[in-house]
Design goal:
mainly alpha
Length: 292
């Protein structure tokens, strides 16, 4: 990978990490599904005019949006609303070993010894975090966030089945078109206080919504798929290991979070496991990105 493209790729975890932190701030003002519906509706309004209509996989995209976005973000961001962003982003990284595990079960892909070791190390890290006294009472939120990571992995497997029929950016656009209304309906069914949230939202809440829709989704994914199209997946994926670093730094600076040494140590173990998976060259694993 050229140095210029490496710098460009490094902007992705920075963009997503800051967005994850801002999501935590916005969740103090908006219900989770409502927040995500606004994010995806903004992204859809910006992107849909520049991509072709997916006639050959419209039904598939509907179900991918429902599973990989609506249900996944409902679980992940409901969990995020209950715990620190620095802890949530560590748990979110379980989507990498989950994706490898599902690929092995559904596609009979052989993960290899190094990936199996990475999966084991990652899960051990989460178990250690869950057992810390500092996260006592937060187990339900951790389970919700971890469930979101699992559901995200299912969505990626679903997308892999149609990835040869649609470009990455077109998929992002049309998934946003479908996920936005789905999340809005979900918010109406399972959440309350939407009108009050709209009336009382501050500039922090609205600024976070705009950032999530335009910068985190449109710009972040635009850069990601541009770099991914020009370089091997194995060369690009490692930059996403910077995601928790940027998220934790932003959470400390902007939200005043102080993750405990135990959480940071457990997080380091999780990331070591993820790194073992990401840096494995053969056999090939699922070619997907762990995006928040």
């Amino acid at each position: 990978m050229k140095f210029r493209e490496l710098l460009l790729a490094s902007c992705v975890p920075l963009t997503w990490g800051l967005g994850f932190t801002l999501s935590k701030a916005a969740l103090a003002e908006f219900p989770p599904l409502m927040l995500m519906s606004m994010r995806f509706l903004i992204a859809a309004l910006v992107l849909v005019w520049f991509v072709p209509f997916p006639r050959n996989c419209l039904k598939d995209l509907f179900w991918i949006a429902l599973v990989g976005s609506t249900i996944q973000y409902g679980l992940t961001f409901t969990g995020l609303s209950m715990i620190d962003a620095s802890l949530a982003i560590i748990v979110v990284h379980l989507e990498v070993p989950f994706a490898v595990l599902l690929a092995a079960v559904l596609f009979r892909e052989r993960p290899g010894l190094q990936r199996l070791l990475g999966m084991t190390v990652s899960f051990v890290g989460i178990i250690l975090i869950a057992g810390l006294p500092s996260v006592e009472g937060q187990l339900f939120a951790i389970v919700l966030t971890g469930s979101g990571a699992l559901v995200w992995s299912v969505g990626q497997i679903m997308y892999k089945r149609i990835s040869n029929r649609i470009t990455g950016l077109a998929a992002v656009a049309w998934i946003a078109v479908m996920a936005g209304p789905q999340m809005l309906v979900g918010s109406m069914l399972f959440e309350s206080g939407q009108l009050t949230a709209l009336v009382n939202a501050t500039w922090v809440g609205w600024g976070s919504v705009v950032y999530l829709g335009l910068v985190m989704t449109v710009l972040g994914y635009g850069i990601w798929y541009t770099v991914l199209a020009r370089n091997p997946v194995s060369h690009v994926m490692p930059v996403l290991l910077l995601l928790p670093v940027f998220t934790i730094a932003a959470s400390v600076l902007l939200l005043g979070e102080r993750p405990s040494p135990g959480v940071l140590s457990g997080g380091a173990i999780v990331l070591c496991g993820v790194a073992l998976i990401v840096f494995t060259r053969s056999p090939q694993g699922p070619k997907t990105s762990n995006a928040p």
